[in-house]
Design brief:
This protein is an alpha/beta fold and 367 residues long. It is 37% helix and 23% strand. Helix 1 packs across helix 2 and helix 1 packs across helix 3. The protein is elongated and about 85 Å long.
């Protein structure tokens, strides 16, 4: 603290009210209040930080300048006196003094987890950034509602799913409603009802998947994140993908699928688990492509699952040794869907697989 800030704090201790303290110091109440607010930042600091500031003489400086210090996993705002010690000397003293300040804690994993289980958290057709007006469509939808819907849904799924060692979060395409600021579908150029700016929607999509990942890390030992393209976000999905890959680059418990292509395929014991947005072909064609392209995994597995989205309503079929399922969308209906009398319900779910027995449990959340 500066001497004036310390005087303000001491005056408050003695006089008990801002009015009396300001009068005793001969200053206005507004000035006193600003000194107290500035002092509060120091008083509320971690004891180790207070000690570090005291050791390098920051709290008694009349003239200060400020900056940021990066520690392992944390950032600390500091003030230090102009003039006096050489910059190198001050930096050395700050570094030594801050050794006692702990880094921000990482997300703790579960105490127990079943290595025979894997839980899939599919996110089909979130359409974050889509705007729907309740009077027209029956329910409201916008970027904030979409983000809260996903986080609430995945929270319920995490609470109800088994403690499997691994979780896979798959954004199955159309995570974003628009691919860019033109607010049109990339191929057909259909006009879209979009909430707010593309910049904000992209930022919120990244935040949504990051928050979902960190929630899953508390339940599961390892979390894999997959972001697939859809017909609405055929380019924008890469912004989300690369942001998450960089965010978790040094986290050994998180892996982000960063490779080109529109498929996700995972072998887990006797299970083949695959996903595609579903806009490029019919289910029969996609299943046959899986059998051809990933023939070795196909031959080693007994239980095979393909999950798609795109059309927003539920459908399921056994196709040549593979169970195909078209999942319900997470998004609400927009004006186009309402005008064409589409009536699919929004839903979110988690699906748990046993490495030797295939799918063993499922939890659904009606949205």
């Amino acid at each position: 603290m500066t001497p004036k800030q310390r005087e303000a704090v001491e005056a408050m201790k003695i006089h008990g009210s801002q009015k009396k303290a300001a009068k005793a110091l001969g200053i206005g109440r507004g000035t006193l209040r600003s000194h107290l607010e500035a002092a509060k930042k120091y008083l509320d600091a971690d004891p180790a930080v207070q000690g570090a500031m005291s050791e390098v003489g920051m709290q008694d400086a009349e003239v200060l300048h400020s900056g940021w210090i990066k520690t392992d996993g944390a950032s600390l705002y500091f003030q230090m006196p102009k003039g006096g010690a050489e910059p190198e000397d001050v930096a050395t003293r700050i570094k030594e003094a801050l050794e006692a300040v702990p880094a921000l804690p990482t997300v703790r994993g579960p105490e127990t987890a079943d290595s025979d289980l894997l839980t899939l958290y599919p996110l089909p057709d979130v359409h974050l950034g889509m705007y729907a007006w309740k009077d027209e469509t029956g329910e409201s939808y916008n970027a904030d509602i979409a983000m809260n819907r996903v986080l609430d849904g995945i929270g319920q799924c995490l609470a109800s799913s088994p403690a499997s060692s691994e979780a896979i979060i798959v954004a199955m395409g159309d995570l974003l409603h628009a691919d860019d600021q033109t607010n049109q579908t990339p191929q057909s150029k259909h006009q879209l009802d979009v909430d707010t700016r593309h910049f904000r929607n992209l930022d919120m999509a990244i935040q949504t998947l990051a928050a979902s990942t960190e929630a899953a890390l508390k339940k599961h030992e390892r979390v894999s994140v997959v972001v697939l393209p859809g017909n609405h976000d055929s380019s924008a999905y890469m912004g989300v993908l690369f942001a998450l890959a960089e965010r978790y680059r040094d986290n050994p418990r998180v892996s982000v699928q960063r490779k080109p292509g529109e498929f996700f395929v995972r072998e887990f014991g006797k299970c083949l688990i695959a996903s595609h947005h579903g806009d490029k072909g019919k289910a029969e064609r996609i299943v046959m492509y899986l059998a051809d392209r990933w023939s070795e995994i196909w031959g080693r597995t007994k239980y095979r699952f393909l999950f798609t989205g795109h059309l927003h309503h539920h459908k399921s079929q056994d196709i040549g040794g593979c169970t195909w399922e078209q999942l319900r969308a997470i998004t609400a209906k927009d004006a186009y869907a309402t005008a064409h009398a589409y009536s699919a319900r929004a839903e979110m779910q988690s699906i748990t697989f046993h490495k030797d027995r295939g799918e063993v449990s499922r939890f659904k959340v009606a949205l």
